[in-house]
Design goal:
The complex is a heterodimer of chains A (607) and B (200).
Chain A lengths: L18 E7 L4 E6 L4 E6 L6 E7 L2 E5 L2 H8 L11 E3 L5 E8 L13 H6 L8 H9 L13 E3 L2 E4 L5 E4 L8 E6 L3 E6 L16 E6 L8 E4 L8 E2 L6 H5 L5 E4 L2 E4 L7 H10 L2 E4 L4 E6 L3 H8 L12 E7 L5 E11 L2 E6 L3 H13 L4 E4 L5 E6 L3 H6 L12 E6 L2 E6 L8 E6 L4 H12 L5 E2 L2 H10 L15 H4 L16 H9 L4 E7 L10 E3 L6 E11 L4 E8 L9 E6 L5 E8 L9 H4 L1
Helix pairs in contact in A: 5-10
Chain B lengths: L14 E3 L7 E6 L3 H9 L11 E7 L11 E8 L4 E6 L3 H12 L5 E3 L4 E7 L5 H9 E3 L12 E7 L2 E10 L2 E9 H16 L2
Antiparallel strand pairs in B: 1-7, 2-5, 2-6, 3-4, 4-5, 7-11, 8-9, 9-10, 10-11
Helix pairs in contact in B: 3-4
The chains are: A alpha+beta (607), B alpha+beta (200).
């Protein structure tokens, strides 16, 4: 095997591993190159905003080639996503390459590589095109030329909207962004550095693409690179402390909020896991939550300003659910504040960017407070279900731990923070543990749970449970443009007991008449609505709101939804309609109910 | 659930294409109200199984003329999706569908015996090596797998490039591995599978 000297290019991030070959594709050209099964192909955007179209052929038989339509169909996705649905397939439905890493996250699988015809149509006859460049590059392999190649267009920013239009714009990629693929068979590949300088696709200035081929002996973890804020470094998807234990039980993991999380478990599945939660006890990894230590003389002052609840009323060992607010009354995030001491708090939310927000507010207000992102030191495991207390009693004294209280303790010498909180609508507990004890804690709890028939639970079952319980999902039920009154957690705004906090004046106005309010809906029949389905008055064509989440509730045996609707129609018992498909073809009668269709009085979590 | 790897086993599996038998068959039903039909026929326990899990079921149908032999029966119900089910039954398929028909209305469900779907069953009272050996031929479609598959679980994949659903279940004291495939592929799959089984 040819081993190539370390990369001499100084305009690139370091190589990821042992190089077998590397190629620089000058702007507006294309090359072909061989790749052996198991080897890795890294396609790098050298200067940013540069598209690179990609073709692959089976080396043994070039009539078998990468097929974007087959790929979309088999994955059920417009572009493969790293994980179970991360492979590109051939016209014979065999895997050709698998995506291992991706730091851009925006590519195209719908459009041809650019063609002469496109350039002609916009007044540039004779302009070089990726398709023509591919024809040249592939001619040595006996591959016949085509007017247009149905390529995978990496870094090409396109989006198909619900009207059918495919819009395109400047690539999202930054300098050094890359896609890492693993070849599933011996391949002849072709890559381009797109010559398009007549529209924004390449930022108007085509630049180079770089290809690195790594040895099959390498092992690169699957990861998606995400940026949480401008100027922040890439964050690659990470395993939690419990992931090794989870991977013994399922291979079906997906990226969620920067972590690999299980969707469902082998030989169990969404329904069995769901019923284990509602009838017995389950365990799940919620380490994707973000943790921040907020300490110092002004820690309480900061939280009083930025968090919706009145935390001065919290006792030591007490926690409370609420949201971080912005000045116009929007929800920056939702989460729980834990009070450890007079000047010592932990905030558990969803976003890395909360740290930036909290620090900015502290600085603006001149507070003396230290904000420390501690997500890497605290991973968390949730044990939920009506038997959770009974199960845990053998290893920890829970009798004094009431709802939204927490304590520091040990479980068989493993130091943990145990908190009586959850996200399921059931009695339950959450364990915060240092990652070095994660596997040990998982195994211990699994062992204790055996006689209670404990099951691990994945995200699919969790989503059903949280919708039944009327619990909000970030980015679905709220964002920074949504007020807590609209999202359905107006009760978590300490309007009466806190005379001053960020967003208060805006919320005073919003509270009088929120543009929409969150309600639960119980639909007639068994069809399940979808996020974005419009809500109407019966027989009326005017929309009054939209569904944010929907599911079929096994325990209620009903189709339910969370919707945000105009407040005029939010009274319990109001009959509305949910429009399926185009909103005209079929409408399902739906009755307004409490946000939590299941146990709306929260008697189970408080029991 | 118990893992079949722990069951007592005997050699010499046998197979009998179910399509050749009038005393056993498969009935599929699906639709928006598929789950509700399953509940009405077999009880609320069907809600507890996930797709590709199954359970033993029995039914008692109310007939004004109560001389119908299939008014009471039992079988094994495989869930394929939220509202899609497949029943392995041990009576006459056409008669049974007729017997179930009154329960279909006004539900939005179709019910039929899929004419292209064949099956072959292997007695598992016998040997865990049936599955061990099947694994040598079976290429599961992720995230499905056969390794340590418990009773009342199915997995989809391919044998010699042909689509197969492998289903492991119990019916009374019988333990069964059932392969389901297109009739046009079944013979080749059976031959291939049988060859592997006989050579081990």
């Amino acid at each position: 095997m040819l081993t190539v000297a370390p990369s001499s290019y100084n305009d690139l991030p370091p190589a990821l591993g042992t190089l077998v070959a590397e190629y620089r594709i000058p702007a507006a050209t294309a090359i072909s190159y061989p790749v052996k099964a198991g080897q890795y192909i890294q396609i790098l955007d050298v200067q940013g905003s540069q598209c690179s179209d990609f073709l692959a052929f089976c080396a043994d038989d070039v009539s078998e080639e990468l097929d974007s339509t087959v790929t979309r169909t088999l994955n059920g996705l417009s572009i493969p996503q790293i994980g179970l649905h991360g492979k590109y397939f051939s016209n014979r439905m065999r895997p050709m390459v698998e995506v291992i890493q991706d730091t851009c996250g925006r590519h195209d699988s719908f459009m041809l590589a650019c063609t002469s015809r496109y350039y002609e149509s916009v007044g540039y006859p004779g302009h070089p095109s990726c398709s023509e460049n591919f024809n040249l590059a592939l001619s040595d392999h006996g591959i016949a030329p085509r007017m247009g190649w149905a390529a995978i267009n990496f870094f090409y920013n396109t989006e198909a909207d619900s009207s059918g239009a495919i819009a395109s714009g400047e690539s999202w990629s930054r300098p050094g962004d890359y896609v890492l693929l693993r070849a599933c068979q011996d391949l002849i590949c072709a890559s381009s550095a797109c010559p398009d300088d007549v529209d924004p696709a390449n930022g108007w200035f085509p630049t180079d693409i770089h290809i690195r081929i790594y040895a099959e002996s390498e092992h690169f973890p699957k990861a998606i690179g995400r940026r949480t804020a401008p100027g922040q470094p890439l964050r690659m998807t990470q395993p939690s402390a419990f992931t090794p234990c989870i991977q013994r039980l399922t291979s079906y993991l997906s990226e969620y909020n920067g972590f690999w999380v299980p969707n469902r478990f082998t030989y169990h599945g969404v329904h069995e896991e769901y019923w284990a939660l509602r009838e017995r006890v389950v365990m799940m990894d919620l380490s994707a939550l973000r943790k921040f230590e907020i300490t110092g003389p002004d820690a309480e002052n900061l939280l009083q300003q930025v968090f919706s609840r009145n935390i001065s009323q919290f006792e030591m060992g007490q926690s409370g659910y609420g949201c971080l607010l912005n000045t116009h009354g929007g929800m920056v995030d939702d989460g729980i504040v834990f009070r450890y001491g007079e000047t010592d708090f932990r905030y558990v939310g969803n976003c890395d960017s909360d740290e930036i927000y909290l620090k900015a507010i502290a600085e603006t207000l001149g507070y003396t407070v230290h904000i420390d992102a501690s997500s890497s030191r605290w991973h968390n495991l949730s044990v939920q279900g009506p038997l959770s207390r009974e199960m845990l009693r053998s290893v920890v004294d829970l009798d004094d731990l009431s709802y939204f209280r927490f304590a520091s303790t040990t479980i068989e010498q493993i130091p943990v923070i145990i908190s009586r909180t959850g996200y399921t609508g059931e009695l339950g507990y959450e364990f915060f543990v240092h990652p070095r004890h994660g596997s040990e804690l998982w195994d211990k709890l699994a062992e204790i749970g055996e006689k209670f028939d404990l099951l691990p639970m994945g995200m699919e079952a969790l989503d059903r449970a949280r919708i039944e319980a009327g619990l909000l999902a970030p980015g679905i039920e709220f964002d920074e443009l949504t007020s807590p009154y609209q999202a359905g957690i107006g009760w978590a705004v300490a309007m009466k007991s806190k005379p001053e906090f960020i967003g208060r004046s805006a919320l005073e106005q919003i509270k009088k008449r929120p543009p929409r309010v969150a309600v639960g809906l119980v639909l007639e029949g068994n069809e399940v609505a979808s996020r974005g389905n419009w809500v109407y008055l019966p027989g009326d064509r005017q929309r009054i709101g939209a569904v944010t989440s929907a599911t079929f509730s096994p325990i209620l045996n009903k189709s339910i939804a969370i919707a945000q609707i105009m407040p005029d129609y939010s009274a319990l018992g109001t009959v509305l309609e949910v429009g399926l498909m185009d909103g005209l073809k079929r409408r399902l009668p739906a009755v307004v109910g409490p946000l939590a269709a299941y146990d709306p009085t929260k008697s189970r979590v408080r029991s | 659930m118990n893992s079949i790897a722990s069951t007592d086993v005997q050699p010499s599996p046998s197979f009998s294409p179910s399509t050749a038998s009038v005393e056993s068959g498969l009935i599929d039903f699906a639709g928006v109200d598929g789950l509700q039909l399953a509940i009405s026929l077999f009880g609320s326990s069907v809600q507890h199984i996930s797709p590709f899990q199954s359970l033993e079921v029995s039914w008692q149908l109310n007939f004004e003329e109560s001389d119908r032999s299939d008014a009471n029966g039992s079988g094994v119900l495989l869930r394929l999706c939220e509202n899609n089910f497949r029943l392995r039954h041990f009576s006459n398929t056409a008669n049974l569908i007729k017997s179930f028909e009154p329960n279909l209305l006004p539900k939005q469900v179709w019910m039929r015996s899929l004419p292209w779907l064949g099956s072959v069953t292997y007695s598992l009272s016998i040997s865990p090596t049936i599955l061990d050996n099947l694994q040598k031929k079976f290429v599961p479609t992720p995230p499905h797998q056969l390794f340590n598959i418990p009773f009342h679980q199915a997995a989809v994949g391919r044998i010699d490039g042909q689509a197969v659903l492998v289903w492991v279940y119990t019916m009374g004291d019988r333990a069964v591995v059932e392969l389901q495939a297109a009739n046009s592929h079944l013979e080749a799959i059976v031959t291939s599978t049988d060859t592997v089984l006989k050579h081990h």
